[in-house]
Design a protein that fits this description.
The chain has 396 residues and is α+β, with helices and mostly antiparallel strands. It is 32% helix and 11% strand. The two termini are 27 Å apart. This is Beta-lactamase-related domain-containing protein.
Length: 396
């Protein structure tokens, strides 16, 4: 087993944890690596704010002839875990009196100030109940994704057209459900939330999140764009990714094309951050601290209570083949329940494609972050759900 331990604050015993379960976790990850379901794995787990499990195993690169190990400090794309951070940014603006969860999006973003979009509010974007098309809508006949519509708009765009209006272009597909009718996972909705942050603060959402959340929490390895130093520590997933990292490391970044510049105007708040397990644990422990980490306050206790309390009841979920009649969800945070999970009823979490996961259990004061980069475009429940149960099984 190619295993590298990370920095910890205390022993498992001091955290009230059965040390033998760490061996079970490592063996589970190694099995998934041997089965070629995941490239590697890394994790960081804390209790009462102190890290007691931290490590990584497997290869850094997808290339079988490279022997560099994945490290606990290796940087990964965190994909949709970005949405959890965006949700806290919105909650911060709510408690500052700049926004409210029930404000219609059209009151801030003009393209949505017309039917059928004028009923959509910030709350419905955060809870994936806006009626906008979900990420899993590819099977709908004649449907074009928001990203395809934006791409087509950018291909025809000229500077003479004025400021890029990708929102109007994307909304040309309309909606497919009534407000609140279904839980439909919609990353595009979180891009709109990024535009809302930009509109009301006067800076990009990426800058606001960096200045108001990431820097105050000391999350130095959590970034929108990799620096050359962080690129040296990044996992290598495929040839295209390898080339992009090498270009960044060697300073060979070509000037962005007009298309790339246009895409940069689309908020990355639905999935654009990269991070490490230890950095994300800082964010998780801030939420466990009811908005505070050490002496640093990000949001207040009532804001954290609001977004981490179940808010959906009786709303069905049919995404990705699901047949769930009552989807459990907070405001921007997943609160999935059922026989599959051992964590406490108070727990909340967010997954990221590719894959990674962050789970927070206030009852046990336990937070866990792990990365399991799937091989290919596959998805394996045993890399996510099963891992949760192994981690929680060690609580004494």
């Amino acid at each position: 087993m190619l295993f590298t331990p990370g920095v910890t604050d205390c022993s498992p015993a001091e955290a009230g944890y059965d040390t033998s379960r760490i061996e079970v976790l490592n063996a589970h990850f190694q099995t998934l690596i041997d089965q070629k379901k995941i490239q590697a794995a890394s994790y960081c787990v804390s209790r009462y704010g102190k890290t007691f499990m931290h490590g990584a195993m497997g290869p850094l690169s997808f290339r079988e002839d490279r022997v560099d190990p994945l490290l606990p400090t290796t940087v990964h794309n965190i994909a949709s875990i970005t949405k959890a951070i965006t949700s806290v940014a919105i909650a911060k603006l709510v408690e500052d009196g700049i926004l409210r969860f029930d404000i219609p999006v059209g009151a801030i973003l003009e393209p949505l100030n017309v039917a059928p979009f004028d009923k959509i509010d910030i709350y419905s974007l955060l809870t994936h109940t806006s009626g906008l098309f979900p990420d899993c809508a590819g099977s709908i006949p004649y449907h074009k994704s928001y990203w395809q519509l934006i791409e087509e708009y950018f291909e025809k765009y000229t500077p003479e057209d004025g400021d890029p209006d990708w929102i109007t272009a994307a909304l040309s597909c309309g909606v497919n459900k009534k407000l609140g009718e279904e839980w439909q996972y919609c990353s595009f909705g979180f891009c709109l939330l990024g535009e809302i942050i930009k509109k009301v603060t006067g800076v990009t959402a990426e800058q606001y999140i960096e200045e108001q959340i990431l820097k105050p929490l000391g999350m130095k390895d959590t970034v929108w764009e990799l620096t050359p130093e962080l690129a040296k520590r990044a996992i290598i997933r495929n040839e295209r990714h390898e080339k992009r990292l090498n270009d960044r490391i060697n300073g060979n970044q070509p000037e962005d094309s007009q298309m790339e510049q246009l895409w940069d105007t689309v908020s990355k708040t639905g999935g654009g951050l990269a991070s490490t397990p230890a950095d994300l644990i800082r964010f998780a422990n801030m939420l466990l601290g009811m908005g505070t980490l050490g002496d640093t306050r990000i949001v207040g206790r009532k804001a954290v209570e609001k977004i981490t309390t179940r808010t959906l009841h009786g709303v069905p979920d049919y995404c990705w083949g699901n047949d769930v009649k009552d989807r459990s969800y907070g405001i921007g945070l997943d609160m999935r329940r059922g026989p599959a999970f051992l964590y406490s009823e108070t727990s909340y979490f967010h997954e990221g494609a590719g894959a990674c996961c962050m789970v927070i259990d206030p009852t046990e004061q336990l937070a866990a972050v792990w990365f399991v980069p799937f091989v290919g475009d596959n998805w394996y429940a045993e890399g996510l759900f099963n891992v949760t149960n192994i981690i929680w099984s060690g609580l004494i």
